């Protein structure tokens, strides 16, 4: 690998290109690009742009180039925010069903195949209410 290729690898990676795209542009192996970058201890993270802070705790977030923007600094903060802001969580997968056991209408989040409102209704409808037989 020439010095020119090494400089091009570093500049293309700094622009946010992945290993495969850099390798294709330079006509060298993807593994060669990966190993060079690892030897250089290249940082693939960029500083947090202005306004890129955790919605929960306000800590700055490091964004990965070419990836979806992070909104939380950790899973703990994400869960904490979701549990304290249930009215703001976008719930697109809410289904309204009718229980075949008791006929009651109920809502389900995330499982369109659910049939019964509870385990008790499932058992009584499926097995005819036989207790322990």
Main pleated-sheet profile: 2 strands, antiparallel
What percent of residues adopt helix (DSSP H or I)?
25-40%
Task: Count the E strands.
Answer: 2
- How large, in whole angstroms, is the Cα Rg? 26 Å
The best one-word shape is elongated
The domain count comes to 3
Topology order in helix (H) and strand (E) letters: HHHHEEH
Describe this structure in words.
- The chain is mainly alpha-helical.
- The protein has 3 domains: 3-39; 45-89, no CATH class; 94-127, no CATH class.
- Helices cover 37% and strands 8% of the residues.
- It has helices at 3-14, 19-26, 30-39, 75-84, 119-127; strands at 94-98, 105-109.
- It has a two-stranded antiparallel sheet with strand order 1-2.
Please outline the helices and strands.
Layout: H1 3-14, H2 19-26, H3 30-39, H4 75-84, E1 94-98, E2 105-109, H5 119-127
Antiparallel strand pairs: 1-2
């Amino acid at each position: 690998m020439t010095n020119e290729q090494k400089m091009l690898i570093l500049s293309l990676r700094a622009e946010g290109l992945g290993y495969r795209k850099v390798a294709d542009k330079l006509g060298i192996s993807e593994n060669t690009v990966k190993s060079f970058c690892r030897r250089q201890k290249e940082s693939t993270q960029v500083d947090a742009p202005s306004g890129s802070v955790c919605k929960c705790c306000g800590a700055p977030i490091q964004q990965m180039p070419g990836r979806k923007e992070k909104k939380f600094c950790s899973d703990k903060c994400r869960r904490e925010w979701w549990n304290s802001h249930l009215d703001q969580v976008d719930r697109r997968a809410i289904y309204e069903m009718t229980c075949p056991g008791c006929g009651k209408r109920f809502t389900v989040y995330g499982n369109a195949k659910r049939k019964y409102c509870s385990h008790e209704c499932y058992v009584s409808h499926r097995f005819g209410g036989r207790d322990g037989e």
